[in-house]
Amino acid sequence: MESFPRKELVSVIQSGMTGSRSAFALAVGRFATKLKHTDLPLAQEIAQFLSAENVMRGAGDFVPAPVDADSRMELVETIFPVVVPKRPVFNGTVQDVLDDVLKEWRSLDVLIQEGLAPARMLLFCGQPGVGKTLAAYWLAQELKLPLLTLNLATVMSSFLGKTGNNVRAVFDHAMSRPCVLLLDEFDAIAKRRDDDTDVGELKRLVNVLLQALDDWPANALLIAATNHGELLDPAVWRRFDHVIQFEPPSAELIETYLADLPMEEKVRKNLAALLHGESFSGIGQLVNSARKTALLEKADLVPTLVKNAVRLRMSKGNMAKPQEGEMLLMYLAGHSRREIATSMGKTHPTVGSVIKRYLGE
Ligand SMILES: Nc1ncnc2c1ncn2[C@@H]1O[C@H](COP(=O)(O)OP(=O)(O)OP(=O)(O)O)[C@@H](O)[C@H]1O
Ligand SMILES: [Mg+2]
């Protein structure tokens, strides 16, 4: 026979007196779930108050956006509504985790009733330009929440001794409202405590951070992004619900990214293979600059894009078959297939097939 959930009731009272609104709601959810075994009508009566709406109303006291005490600069930038014009492309593993997070947030009502919190803290790791910041924007857009970005330069540029206060102020502000808080370049504030440099100061800072992560409510999503996951303090690492590793895109993913550009499938596949090894941000820049050239010089988009891509790969010395690159550049500069064949010592059909593969002509 189950007994009255005394422990859970004490937690309810404790979090009601000291914690956030969402911590209180979660404690009530846990209490009501246990109480079902001994007093179902009372449990149901209590559960009526547990709704996502009530939790998302945020804390009672709104904390205004903080500024640096010395420079008076804002410590956090707020965007609302967040609009991501093109749906980002992620590999299956990353997309699955992001979808799970969204599903949990959209099922907040069901979770709270059982005293369960949705994923509250995510850590995004990966090289520059793979979509970490973009993924944070995308989540904020999908959840229809404001995106708050910690202004790292301001937070850290103040006298070192103030950094901890600044970080704490940003957290207090973010915790007081439903939002997505993005901590970009997270390694800068979450370095290992045993790092030799600035030991005392960094230790204090990491402790501020750990405390804030422990207090983090269930009605806000914290996303930390870093290029250097390995630099993070293991104690920081452990607190995240999900650590997501963003990889540079595969050729297939690049092909998906290029899907809205008008070109033959074969050409798209070949272009994606050519660009394999570049980051999404590099590819995005390439596409944008080709779009502008095509518009301003009334050129065709695909040859312009291919030319830029070949040039980029050749200049980095990582074009798999540099001779093909030279042939293409000659062709795009106006030389005939025959001229190219003669100059490169290749047969006419060989040149023709390379051009067809890259340009579909
Ligand atoms: N997965 C993706 N899908 C579509 N576009 C992408 C993707 N990743 C990056 N991009 C493009 O590259 C740009 C830069 O990406 P983003 O800022 O998200 O990179 P990051 O991983 O945060 O890099 P950094 O470590 O330098 O901050 C985006 O604005 C977008 O145009
Ligand atoms: Mg970024």
Describe this protein's structure.
There is one protein chain. This protein has 361 residues and is of the alpha/beta class. It has three domains: 6-50, no CATH class; 76-245, 3-Layer(aba) Sandwich (Rossmann fold); 251-359, no CATH class. Helix content is 55%, strand content 7%. The protein has a six-stranded mixed beta sheet with strand order 1-3-4-5-2-6, with helices on both faces. Helix 10 links the parallel strand 4 and strand 5 (221-226). Helix 14 crosses helix 15 (301-315) and helix 16 crosses helix 18. The chain is elongated, with a radius of gyration of 27 Å. It starts with 5 loop residues before the first helix and ends with a helix. The model has no long low-confidence stretch (mean pLDDT 89). Residues 132-133, 184, 225 line the site of magnesium ion.
Distance between the termini: 79 Å
Bound molecules: adenosine-5'-triphosphate, magnesium ion
- Which geometry do the CA atoms define? elongated
**Helix run count:** 18
Query: CATH H level of the largest domain: which superfamily?
Result: P-loop containing nucleotide triphosphate hydrolases
Spatial arrangement of strands, main beta sheet: 1-3-4-5-2-6
How big is the Rg? 27 Å
Strand content: 5-15%
Q: In the CATH classification, which architecture of the largest domain applies?
A: 3-Layer(aba) Sandwich
- The CATH class of the largest domain is identified as Alpha Beta
Task: Write the element-wise H/E pattern from the N-terminal end onward.
Answer: HHHHEHHEHEHHEHEHEHHHHHHH
Overall SS class: alpha/beta
**What is the β-strand count?**
6
Number of domains: 3
Q: Which fold name is given in CATH as the topology of the largest domain?
A: Rossmann fold
Main sheet properties? 6 strands, mixed
Low-confidence stretches are none
Question: Could you estimate the helical fraction of the residues in percent?
Answer: 55-70%
Mean pLDDT: 89
